[in-house]
Amino acid sequence: MDAIGNDSLITDEAALNALYGESPIGAIAKEIDYIHPHYKAMIEASPFMVIATSGPGGLDASPRGDPARSFIQVPDDKTVLIPDRRGNNRVDSLRNILHDNRVALLFLIPGVGETLRVNGRACISTAPDLIQRFTLRGTLPKSVIVVTAERVYFQCPKALVRSELWNPARHIGRKSLPSTGTILADITGGTVGGEQYDRNYPERLRTTIY
Prior knowledge:
The chain is of the alpha+beta class. It has 2 domains: 13-163, Roll (Pnp Oxidase, Chain A); 172-208, no CATH class. The chain contains 8 helices and 7 strands, in the order αααββββαββαβααα. Strands 2-1-5-6-7-4-3 form a 7-stranded antiparallel sheet, covered by helices on one side. It is globular, with a radius of gyration of 20 Å. The termini are far apart. The model has no long low-confidence stretch (mean pLDDT 95).
């Protein structure tokens, strides 16, 4: 962007600290290296999370979701278990974990302004006893991501308050945006997507979601 001038860029921590100042004590004190029972309650109430990973191909942030209390499990104060259910088979997150096991998790709870963040190290398990823990609607995940927590803290609600994310009056009708079939058709020059793709999508989702 032409509007970004080199003289306006922040390029070192001293300049960053001068611009923002010190963090309030609560912002520091909330961070711990284990999953406190209060943080466990937030994780178990969440039906949706984003997992961020890094690998040779770059960064990835992938959404994950299941019904709350049937989703993420916290067997102890250092471990988070995440079922990896059927998706689009890109497996970007899993591939990244094989190369760089650092992960960052962001948990959202509908109607709640605070989010929960967990940073740690991950591995991918197909141990039968872990897989069986996540039976849902007669299906099992392909694998389980096992995260060892290193940094755990809640995020204040400012972003969700400003965005009004949970306000139904602010929700956007899906038809006001391009359909997935339209997006694919335009990107691929018509080789993928289109109206037929959109017509088939509801049934495809129903038969492949679990």
